[in-house]
Amino acid sequence: xxxxxxxxxxxxxxxxxxxxxxxxxxxxxxxxxxxxxxxxxxxxxxxxxxxxxxxxxxxxxxxxxxxxxxxxxxxxxxxxxxxxxxxxxxxxxxxxxxxxxxxxxxxxxxxxxxxxxxxxxxxxxxxxxxxxxxxxxxxxxxxxxxxxxxxxxxxxxxxxxxxxxxxxxxxxxxxxxxxxxxxxxxxxxxxxxxxxxxxxxxxxxxxxxxxxxxxxxxxxxxxxxxxxxxxxxxxxxxxxxxxxxxxxxxxxxxxxxxxxxxxxxxxxxxxxxxxxxxxxxxxxxxxxxxxxxxxxxxxxxxxxxxxxxxxxxxxxxxxxxxxxxxxxxxxxxxxxxxxxxxxxxxxxxxxxxxxxxx
Amino acid sequence: xxxxxxxxxxxxxxxxxxxxxxxxxxxxxxxxxxxxxxxxxxxxxxxxxxxxxxxxxxxxxxxxxxxxxxxxxxxxxxxxxxxxxxxxxxxxxxxxxxxxxxxxxxxxxxxxxxxxxxxxxxxxxxxxxxxxxxxxxxxxxxxxxxxxxxxxxxxxxxxxxxxxxxxxxxxxxxxxxxxxxxxxxxxxxxxxxxxxxxxxxxxxxxxxxxxxxxxxxxxxxxxxxxxxxxxxxxxxxxxxxxxxxxxxxxxxxxxxxxxxxxxxxxxxxxxxxxxxxxxxxxxxxxxxxxxxxxxxxxxxxxxxxxxxxxxxxxxxxxxxxxxxxxxxxxxxxxxxxxxxxxxxxxxxxxxxxxxxxxxxxxxxxxxxxxxxxxxxxxxxxxxxxxxxxxxxxxxxxxxxxxxxxxxxxxxxxxxxxxxxxxxxxxxxxxxxxxxxxxxxxxxxxxxxxxxxxxxxxxxxxxxxxxxxxxxxxxxxxxxxxxxxxxxxxxxxxxxxxxxxxxxxxxxxx
Lengths: 358, 509
Hints:
heterodimer; A: mainly alpha; ABC transporter involved in vitamin B12 uptake, BtuC; 13 helices; 0% strand; globular; B: alpha/beta; Rossmann fold; six-stranded mixed sheet; 27% strand
């Protein structure tokens, strides 16, 4: 093994230890919060332990979309682009996937149908991501704002679809959803975990992680993404095309987001409906942040947040602790991770004040 | 005449640098003092001290004969000191009036008394002949008008001592003339002005007294009537030429780079390069001398492909490359050592390796079908670190762990490894230690002796004089003069680079 790998492993270990400490700190803080509010203090910890042992099926179910969302974020983050529009791209992917699934011939082979559905979803997600990307590249529009606002458009567009052109008219009642997808487009669930909705989306997520890791560390595009993210002037000076790179990462990110939509529709909901997405896109930011934007780390942090989400849902079902507590834990994690950026600055300032006072 | 400001024996130390060493200057009421010197000579530090933005370590300041302690710009303003910054301190979305009265508005019944403010400002504008439309918003104004607003703002605050930090750097020639007129007006009304510049023509035209600084010390202090541009250039540059690296006999071959009548805009969108033509041949070093900010950056960016010229043509090996992208120029044999090592030349958070492979990462044999061979790239980086003596235990370390000189070695290694036929080197020795300077100079001469063309841009005149076979002097985006090696000395070049003279043109302009 070469020294580069040694360094990478050492770095990864370092970061892992640090992030695990952050998680522990967050859990302690969250438990204190629960205790003070009069709930069972260890509920959240128990939820996570359950999620990683007896109830691992639920964790697997939630981990898949969270890992993919984390990957969608970390791809763009490497290029210093911020895609807050994963949710919108995901909805668009779900819509396109559903539309295609509903028109595919009934007898078509399952694998072929799924590949077509997924491709449609990925293309839709990527195209929707192209809107803010092109605006950024050609008009210098801040992508944080444009991606965020496009989410609302996507949500309303889905509402229009399921109340209009794609509404299930056979249901009789006013169900705001599309028709149920034909069975040959259902993404298989993992039989081991039946009757949970844990599905092979988890495997897809792991494969996508491997592809992204390969992209980052082995391809010329990966090197370009790194350079554009570190110093765009240098990238231009070295003959790269930062604008093209930004379009590429946004397309990749949008495609991954579209994939989440396809998984949720074909494996879990089996139809397009409004509000099926519990803000995976924003959770993806936390997933990627906790993994230090490392694609391999994203799998682990995705599983952690999956267990947290699953634990939160169970907690609400079995105890009187509201599932919103999981969001509080996420918030605490964000704050503790941000401390990484704030603490050195505070230290520097303290040192300066001390020096100035002498 | 009564002295308005005296700064006596001022010293200011920064870690490892003496910014000002025992500097004294004085300016009387109704007098203009020119403070001149090259970049980094310590002019701005002196003025920041006077305006209360930094504190002197030694020395004292007297205003109107009384010793004062200026600990903040507020104190300075109370003492009647105003500063017109090179970069304007104005709120672009507010009106001229709002900007002027900001923080010092006349109040009547708890409201801003716009009428009183307007009449007071009108009085100032009439007295000093400074017309501006008070209701216009700042972003609608031209640069010259913004500057006028700055001056009015200072006067409104009761300034009678004005510091003007390179006020003409951003102005067109007509605007400059207008500004000089305003300065004369202010002087006649009894204001004291400290005028910072490095343009000798303006200094000779308007000042009464001149203080010349170089490397933190005063090298000359004299009345304008006793000064001439040659003398001032001498004080500004001063050093003797030494450091000669022996190269082969000068035998220029055919032209590698032909720049024909190229014009370009700077980052602010103003014309910065006016129809420059030049040629670099095989086996020669062409040196561009000039004070920074006179179009050198734009020239290099137009040649290397970072910006598109607004006019003219760039030919490389006889082929028109004016609209070619950076990469195709690089592949055709152009290498570029940028003037801003950290901003343009490197990514400091990436590894040394990542920085070294930029020219090769996508090429065979280092990469096939867009997949990089990390082993080969790492060997390449390690070889370069060894050949160019980059002091690091491991090329996988972050670039930021290196010193400035070693970072420059990384840039040099990367650019020389591409085996260029043309090397563009901008400020190649800025901020590096003596040892690194020597090795960089040797590499440049080596490249020349290997029949490559070198375009060298440097603010260090002795660097140009010791390396260049031909010297072009740039001033305000034009080439003022051309010399062969040995035809000119520092003093002669300094006259052209400050715009005091122009070859073949009006010598007295």
